[in-house]
Amino acid sequence: MNYDPVGGLRVAGCAQVKASAVFFVKFNVGSKAYVKKKAFKGKLEAVVIKKINRVGLTKPFRQGVGSEINYVDTTNRVWMEEELVSHQTAVDLSIIHWENVKQAGLEILHQNGCVSMPPEGCR
């Protein structure tokens, strides 16, 4: 005896895709960042990050389109990511500025015929 199955299968329903975009930031919420423009002038000005915003991405997961990251500090000023640097970078930029100022001062002294003081001081 052979049995031949008869019937069908009906599939109904809907599916939903849940995904999230991953983006990388230089500074986390609560961390200190330093103003690059001030560091170029030899000053260290720190801001504390309160909020991170991602702007410029209209449709998620679109290839070739990047988003801009900006930060809001505790005084509610908005900073673009390239305006802020880490502590070590700010210190390095500040040291470079003051070394340039020192070299410019020494050049002015030598051009005017003045002799600079030796590093070990007067004896």
**Can you summarize the main beta sheet?**
5 strands, antiparallel
Strand content: 15-25%
Please state the average pLDDT score: 82
Instruction: List SSEs in N-to-C order.
Output: EHEEEEH
Rg, rounded, reads 30 Å
What is the CA–CA distance across the termini? 121 Å
Q: Structural class of the helices, strands and pairings?
A: alpha+beta
Strand ordering within the main sheet: 4-3-2-1-5
User: DSSP helix count?
Assistant: 2
Percent range of helical residues: 10-25%
Find the count of extended strands (DSSP E, 2+ residues).
5
Low-pLDDT segments: none
- The coarse silhouette is rod-shaped
Explain what you see:
The structure is a single chain. With 123 residues, this protein is of the alpha+beta class. The protein has a domain of 80 residues. Helices cover 24% and strands 20% of the residues. The chain has 2 helices and 5 strands. Strands 4-3-2-1-5 form a 5-stranded antiparallel β-sheet. A hairpin with a 4-residue loop joins strand 3 and strand 4. The N and C termini lie far apart (121 Å). The model has no long low-confidence stretch (mean pLDDT 82).
